[in-house]
Amino acid sequence: MGRYSGKTCRLILMLVITVIFFVAEIVAGYMGNSVALVSDSFNMLSDILSLCVGLTAARVSRRAGSGRFSFGLGRAEVVGALANAVFLIALCFSISMESLKRLAMPQAIDDAPLVLIVGSLGLAVNLVGLVIFQDCGRLCGRRGKEKKREEHREDREQELEQVETGLQEEKTEKDGAPLNIRGVLLHVLNDALGSVVVVVASALFYVWPLEPDQPCNWQCYVDPSLTLVMVIIILSSAAPLLKETTTILLQMSPEDLPVSAILESVCRLPGVSSVHEAHVWELAKGRNVASLHVKLQAPAGALWAQVSLQQQITQIFHRAGVHSLTLQLELADSDADSSCSAPCLSSSCQKLSCCPAGPVCVCAPPRDSSTEKHTPQACTHSSKL
């Protein structure tokens, strides 16, 4: 396709189809007096925004870092996914208010055949969208992986052993689809469910039509009730996306990354006295970054020992899924020295640092009086990452 990749072409195709049916649904919803169809049309509008975010992020995130964007624009998709999740939650509030109003003052669907036809076409469009992307299985797979990660994190000692021996599986981008693509898939899945609500509600009025002079019965409550169910489904997908994007923008350590086990692995390396100024965060989904200061004992101060130790530390982080590491090696003046050798030049500027000063792990092991050898000892944490 020339300048466009396969993923971009699929996004463009889905965008064109979604715009057409957004206009059709909102017109038919107001003509047929169906709150479910109107709400589904606004879901289509959120789809349009998410598709635009996906297209923009796909192009912008490939740009290399330069000037003020030293990290590049990889977080463009995170910001877009956050805005998309916030829009979805605000949309849920608006739709729920309209549904509660319709429950208090029930109304029949005026043009049931029109609403049924448009709702069926909308469902077909969403199914076509799932076929176009052919990535919906990643969502289920990702949930399964997250469940396995939770079970894996319960045994902390086993994690530490896996990091040290290199048995932990290397993390790649297959851990999950990009956030913007995940947002699009969530929108399409939610729209498919919303279209089901529209089809069910309109089919009831089509099979059992109400005369204009007849009062509303149970059929009038199906449309707003199922719409509230749809709102709950939308929130169940938007809330995790909001949480995930927020944790990335707050530069929290990834939940599936055993940070404590990694630092203990570093502490147990021969010659390491302490680890401080340790930071691990996600630049974008699946792109982990870390920086830390490592205090070395006197025997490990030789240049060849520093090079070997640096390679071992880099390998530990690499096996854990951190492939961008900034490492600062420092020499300890004594065995008890665990303070940072490169503090701020003035005490007045410590408040402007990224976090409180102090060692994260103090790893100096006691000497064995009989063998005069160091016995490995897990580090003691003194501050939160």
TrEMBL record:
<dbReference type="GO" id="GO:0010312">
    <property type="term" value="P:detoxification of zinc ion"/>
</dbReference>
<dbReference type="GO" id="GO:0006828">
    <property type="term" value="P:manganese ion transport"/>
</dbReference>
<feature type="transmembrane region" description="Helical">
    <location>
        <begin position="42"/>
        <end position="60"/>
    </location>
</feature>
<feature type="transmembrane region" description="Helical">
    <location>
        <begin position="12"/>
        <end position="30"/>
    </location>
</feature>
<dbReference type="GO" id="GO:0071577">
    <property type="term" value="P:zinc ion transmembrane transport"/>
</dbReference>
<feature type="compositionally biased region" description="Basic and acidic residues">
    <location>
        <begin position="147"/>
        <end position="156"/>
    </location>
</feature>
<feature type="transmembrane region" description="Helical">
    <location>
        <begin position="184"/>
        <end position="209"/>
    </location>
</feature>
<dbReference type="InterPro" id="IPR058533">
    <property type="entry name" value="Cation_efflux_TM"/>
</dbReference>
<keyword id="KW-0862">Zinc</keyword>
<comment type="similarity">
    <text>Belongs to the cation diffusion facilitator (CDF) transporter (TC 2.A.4) family. SLC30A subfamily.</text>
</comment>
<dbReference type="GO" id="GO:0055071">
    <property type="term" value="P:manganese ion homeostasis"/>
</dbReference>
<dbReference type="GO" id="GO:0005385">
    <property type="term" value="F:zinc ion transmembrane transporter activity"/>
</dbReference>
<dbReference type="Pfam" id="PF01545">
    <property type="entry name" value="Cation_efflux"/>
</dbReference>
<feature type="transmembrane region" description="Helical">
    <location>
        <begin position="221"/>
        <end position="242"/>
    </location>
</feature>
<keyword id="KW-1133">Transmembrane helix</keyword>
<feature type="region of interest" description="Disordered">
    <location>
        <begin position="144"/>
        <end position="172"/>
    </location>
</feature>
<feature type="domain" description="Cation efflux protein transmembrane">
    <location>
        <begin position="11"/>
        <end position="250"/>
    </location>
</feature>
<dbReference type="GO" id="GO:0006882">
    <property type="term" value="P:intracellular zinc ion homeostasis"/>
</dbReference>
<keyword id="KW-0812">Transmembrane</keyword>
<feature type="transmembrane region" description="Helical">
    <location>
        <begin position="81"/>
        <end position="100"/>
    </location>
</feature>
<feature type="transmembrane region" description="Helical">
    <location>
        <begin position="112"/>
        <end position="133"/>
    </location>
</feature>
<dbReference type="InterPro" id="IPR002524">
    <property type="entry name" value="Cation_efflux"/>
</dbReference>
<dbReference type="InterPro" id="IPR027469">
    <property type="entry name" value="Cation_efflux_TMD_sf"/>
</dbReference>
<keyword id="KW-0472">Membrane</keyword>
<protein>
    <submittedName>
        <fullName>Solute carrier family 30 member 10</fullName>
    </submittedName>
</protein>
<dbReference type="GO" id="GO:0016020">
    <property type="term" value="C:membrane"/>
</dbReference>
